[in-house]
Amino acid sequence: xxxxxxxxxxxxxxxxxxxxxxxxxxxxxxxxxxxxxxxxxxxxxxxxxxxxxxxxxxxxxxxxxxxxxxxxxxxxxxxxxxxxxxxxxxxxxxxxxxxxxxxxxxxxxxxxxxxxxxxxxxxxxxxxxxxxxxxxxxxxx
Length: 141
Hints:
Pfam families: DUF934
Distance between the termini: 45 Å
Largest sheet: 6 strands, mixed
Organism: Qipengyuania flava
Structural class: alpha/beta
Oligomer: single chain
Number of strands: 6
Order of helices and strands: EEHEEHEHEHH
Strand content: 15-25%
Strand order of the largest sheet: 1-6-5-4-3-2
Protein name: DUF934 domain-containing protein
Helix content: 25-40%
Number of domains: 1
InterPro entries: UCP030820
CATH class: Alpha Beta
């Protein structure tokens, strides 16, 4: 497992993540791992007690985790949202727009490539889960 890349100001979360089913069955878990096919909406009543949600990407072409991230962020989840698994540098900017703020790829990523991926497009066209301002609002400001 490669180093976790974090983009948060708070302390790293080191709770062991449990499956969604195990999380729903126990009252003391603070971290959960969403697998492809899990329904992130099952976690919505419990967002206040979660400090970490890992979303597994077993293959780079499986985009279901993007939807899980958006569902959680749009519902108000403010804890760490970590993409784990087959996470490629080309996906990082899109994952961050969906609300991911930490990444734990299977393979180590070059830090310069990671920064270049985040800096590549300075403007965006629509609102998303991140805090970037769409370019059209600047024109009408």
